[in-house]
């Protein structure tokens, strides 16, 4: 891989790492969405983060709005969280019995998340959703699942549903038996008519509706969530919220807190521990009893790993004591509103849509999709790291937002040429 260096192209350390990754790992990354697609402008590897900035292996700095694809809500190397991890490291990481941190973090979630009467832990959002689906099937004795949005790779099972964020499978997803895929039904955001039709066709077989918000059109949740709640109750199915992105970001208790519609179960992950690998699946006492002794067996050695739980306890306490979510809204509105003004002034058919803590880059009708890639490349050249769903974190201060807008204004000018 090459970058500009005094007007000349030269081989970089990052490029060497990219070649090694491509040789050793399918996709060149263990996370599909992290594999760089906009080389040479996009950094091939990131080696360090601090606050709201990251650096590649060649020392290039970026004001970061990818935030690890969402988990970095407070900022890289956030002192209180890192210190909590260090303190726990001195006492051990994994034990053969539960650690008190499991109870403490579960209790904190029970205080903040409306549906969380009982809580259990895993490491990733996708596997926690798989656990929620297994619980729903156990509790209801039914097999079918209606899925709204992308619910993680373990649950991207429905033909025609998202195989990755923004990418749709044609037919059954690869590696998924047709018999399994046939039990999962993909429905679009705010398409209550399609959900109703599935219940009309096979309502007595539907165990749950699992719903992840559409980030560009999240405001439609004001009517969509109540409609789903009424429909699932009518037919005896469970309502499960995928709060992996929205939890601790739209509101401290997620979209169920923000919209005031409580599901039977929910999954939280990305915002729960400021980057440490942790997920939580939770719900009412009655429903969660389906994974208690004698119910569905969901078990993982690392579910109670203490470094992530210590990070989560510290992170959640900061959410409670400081106005983190308010900061995400305020700084997001400042940044994305300012960027929309600059995109419009440059005549670019790109807009940020959705709520300020996690908006989506969208194209105006008839626009060439390549323009977004050109803009992202220009942003990287000017030291700003973006993603289709971009985030501010608690470490993005006013000066960082102002500097980012200056850099992005230059990126707009370059893209418009």
UniProtKB/TrEMBL annotation:
SUPFAM superfamilies: PLP-dependent transferases. It comes from the Bacteria. Keywords: Aminotransferase, Pyridoxal phosphate, Transferase. Pfam families: Aminotran_3. InterPro entries: Aminotrans_3 (IPR005814), Aminotrans_3_PPA_site (IPR049704), PyrdxlP-dep_Trfase (IPR015424), PyrdxlP-dep_Trfase_major (IPR015421), PyrdxlP-dep_Trfase_small (IPR015422). Belongs to the class-III pyridoxal-phosphate-dependent aminotransferase family. Gene3D superfamilies: Aspartate Aminotransferase, domain 1, Type I PLP-dependent aspartate aminotransferase-like (Major domain). Its cofactor is pyridoxal 5'-phosphate. It comes from Paenibacillus flagellatus. One of its GO terms (molecular function) is pyridoxal phosphate binding. This is Aspartate aminotransferase family protein.
């Amino acid at each position: 891989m090459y970058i500009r260096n005094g007007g000349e192209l030269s081989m970089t350390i990052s490029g060497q790492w990219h070649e090694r990754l491509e040789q050793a790992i399918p996709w060149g990354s263990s996370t599909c969405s992290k594999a760089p697609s906009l080389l040479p402008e996009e950094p091939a590897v990131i080696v360090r983060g601090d606050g709201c900035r990251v650096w590649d292996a060649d020392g290039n700095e970026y004001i970061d709005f990818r935030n690890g694809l969402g988990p970095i809500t407070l900022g890289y190397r956030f002192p209180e969280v890192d210190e909590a991890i260090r303190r726990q490291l001195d006492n051990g990481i994994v034990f053969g019995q539960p650690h008190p941190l499991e109870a403490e973090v579960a209790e904190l979630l029970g205080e903040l998340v409306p549906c969380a009467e009982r809580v259990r832990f895993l490491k990733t959002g996708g596997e926690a959703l798989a656990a929620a689906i297994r619980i729903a099937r156990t509790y209801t004795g039914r097999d079918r699942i209606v899925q709204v949005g992308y619910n993680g790779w373990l649950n991207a099972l429905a033909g025609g549903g998202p195989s990755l964020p923004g990418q749709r499978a044609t037919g059954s997803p690869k590696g998924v038996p047709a018999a399994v895929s046939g039990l999962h039904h993909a429905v679009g955001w705010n398409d209550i008519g399609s959900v109703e039709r599935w219940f009309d066709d096979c309502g007595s077989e539907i165990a749950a509706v699992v719903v992840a918000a559409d980030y560009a059109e999240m405001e439609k949740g004001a009517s969509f969530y109540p409609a789903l709640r009424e429909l699932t109750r009518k037919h005896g199915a469970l309502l499960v919220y995928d709060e992996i992105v929205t939890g601790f970001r739209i509101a401290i208790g997620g979209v169920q807190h923000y919209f005031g519609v409580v599901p039977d179960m929910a999954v939280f992950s990305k915002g729960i521990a400021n980057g440490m690998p942790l997920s939580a699946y939770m719900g009412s006492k009655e429903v969660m009893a389906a994974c208690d002794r004698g119910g569905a067996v969901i078990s993982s050695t690392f579910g109670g790993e203490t470094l992530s739980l210590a990070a989560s306890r510290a992170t959640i306490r900061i959410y409670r004591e400081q106005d983190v979510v308010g900061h995400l809204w305020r700084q997001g509105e400042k940044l994305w509103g300012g960027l929309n003004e600059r995109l419009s002034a440059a005549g670019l058919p790109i807009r940020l849509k959705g709520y300020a803590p996690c908006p989506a880059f969208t194209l105006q009708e008839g626009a060439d999709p390549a323009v977004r890639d050109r803009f992202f490349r220009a942003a990287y050249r000017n030291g700003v790291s973006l993603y289709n769903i971009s985030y501010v974190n608690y470490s993005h201060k006013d000066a960082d937002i102002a500097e980012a807008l200056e850099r992005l204004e230059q990126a707009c000018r370059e893209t418009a040429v």
